[in-house]
Design brief:
Length: 485
């Protein structure tokens, strides 16, 4: 594995690093939290705004917009600087949040949630890039471990926070609460972050961005429209699939011919990132296919309320945070990332196997054990994959590789929700609607993820050994010096 050894540049030293990191982390928290916080309030929103059949779009449109724009924000920040692009995106997100709280119809809310998602596309991508620039390479693993902990807490606690806010002051405050938090994030980053403005001269690949956004939206719509109780017709799905293939083909053709591609295709042929990027996509599918449906299992099997189910996921959250921090710290200290990636993937296989053995009669102790194992495995590798990708490329490609990794992870998460939602619907088909049937069907659904966990394990095994490559590089240099006149 090729590792770039340059530390953060002199411009990073002019930043107030603690305050800048806090502002960036708050932006990350808002971005991930709003992916799941709304789900618990959907019945209340339906009661106020009606149109129950369109409720799923309140969640889907946000994920679509944030996933599709993530890579573009990375390139925008390469040209205009991290701080101005981040501040603009948080401003869009904050204004849209306030307007979401004032929405009078479901159509208005869907449109404004899309606008919120457009802003959110930068709220995880740019902080991940900026933190890598604020800290030297030796600390990136530890920093990204902390980022992974933020991701886990926000993703899993979303329904818990949303339920508490909805019960206390109503669903509109799920959106209003973003306004002061967004302003605080903007104030901290605006005051403390000082990185080069437009340090890399790039021309924005608008055509490539449009094709990529269209293809991502098409893929997510296929997953959304082909699942659920009223799936779309076969003709529509096939037509949409053909459109996606055409757009992806046009995207690849264009990216090969432009000087400043939105996602350099060389990343997919690089010996490290060519493995890391597909693995990141698979991990996204696995992570959200479990996180989204486990609260439903807990409520069905144990009769828990939404708040109780959120609290019952704490073993996952705590295990994730601990393993993310330890893996990041130890990998940074030893310089050996590969053992943690392979080990984490193996633990994920075990975690899904344990959760797949559950049923409606299982004890909470058995559930907690599965949650601890799965949380530990995902925590070990979630942000470590981003760190390895960042360290494997030159500084000029830092924004591109980070954007690509996060965009693929977001796409994987969206596909995980949609695809495994379809599998769950198949498991429940023909069975009487009951809590017991749901509690039995969800573990059966998770069993179907086991082949994908093996794919993830194989991909991590394929990651090059950095120590071996360093020895090879040293030998090549020695040979060159002996041949020099």
């Amino acid at each position: 594995m090729s590792v770039t050894t340059t530390a953060a540049g002199p411009a990073a030293r002019t930043s107030n690093v603690p305050l800048a990191a806090a502002g960036l982390a708050l932006g990350m928290l808002l971005s991930v939290l709003d992916q799941t916080i709304v789900s618990i309030a959907l019945p209340d929103i339906a009661g106020d705004l009606g149109d129950v059949g369109s409720l799923r779009w309140i969640v889907t449109c946000y994920v679509l917009a944030s996933t599709a724009t993530g890579a573009l924000y990375g390139r925008l920040s390469d040209r205009f600087g991290r701080r101005p692009v981040f501040l603009t995106a948080v401003g869009i997100f904050t204004i849209a949040s306030a307007l979401c709280g004032m929405a009078g119809t479901l159509t208005e809310l869907v449109v404004l949630r899309t606008m919120q998602g457009v802003g959110a596309g930068a709220l995880f991508t740019i902080p991940t890039i900026a933190l890598a620039e604020l800290f030297p390479v030796a600390l990136r693993g530890r920093v990204q471990g902390a980022v992974g902990a933020i991701f886990a807490v926000a993703a899993v606690s979303g329904p818990l926070v949303g339920g508490a806010i909805t019960d206390a002051v109503g669903w509109r405050w799920i959106f209003y609460i973003n306004v002061p938090l967004g302003l605080i994030s903007m104030a901290l980053v605006g005051f403390a972050l000082r990185l080069p403005r437009g340090g890399i001269a790039v021309r924005l690949d608008v055509g490539g961005s449009v094709l990529l956004v269209g293809a991502v939206i098409g893929v997510l719509l296929i997953g959304e429209w082909s699942s659920g109780s009223n799936p779309a017709g076969v003709g529509l799905i096939l037509g949409l699939g053909a459109a996606v293939v055409i757009m992806l083909g046009a995207f690849v053709w264009r990216e090969r011919r432009t000087d400043d591609p939105v996602i350099p295709l060389g990343l997919f042929t690089h010996r490290v990132t060519g493995v890391i990027l597909p693995a990141t996509l698979v991990l996204g599918v696995l992570m959200y296919s479990s996180i989204v449906y486990l609260p439903t299992y807990l409520r069905s099997a144990f009769g828990m309320s939404a708040t109780e189910a959120g609290l019952a996921l704490n073993p996952y959250v705590v295990a994730f945070m601990v393993s993310s921090f330890l893996a990041g710290s130890l990998a940074s200290k030893t310089g050996r990332y590969r053992p943690f990636l392979i080990g984490g993937a193996a633990v994920i296989v075990l975690g899904f196997a344990l959760l797949g053995l559950l049923d409606a009669e299982s004890s909470y102790l058995a559930v907690a054990l599965g949650l601890i194992v799965l949380g530990s495995g995902i925590g070990m590798i979630l942000q470590l994959m981003v760190t390895v990708a960042q360290n494997a490329v030159a500084a000029t490609e830092l924004g591109a590789v980070t954007s690509a990794a996060l965009a693929l992870r977001g796409l994987g998460m969206s596909l995980g929700i949609a695809v495994y939602g379809g599998v769950l619907g198949h498991e429940l088909a023909g069975k009487p609607a009951s809590a017991t049937a749901t509690a039995d069907a969800i573990p059966d659904t998770l069993i179907w993820a086991l082949p994908l966990t093996m794919v993830l394990l194989v991909l991590t095994l394929a990651i090059p050994d950095p120590a071996r490559q360093r020895r090879s590089t040293g030998e090549d240099r020695a040979d060159s010096s002996r041949q020099a006149p």
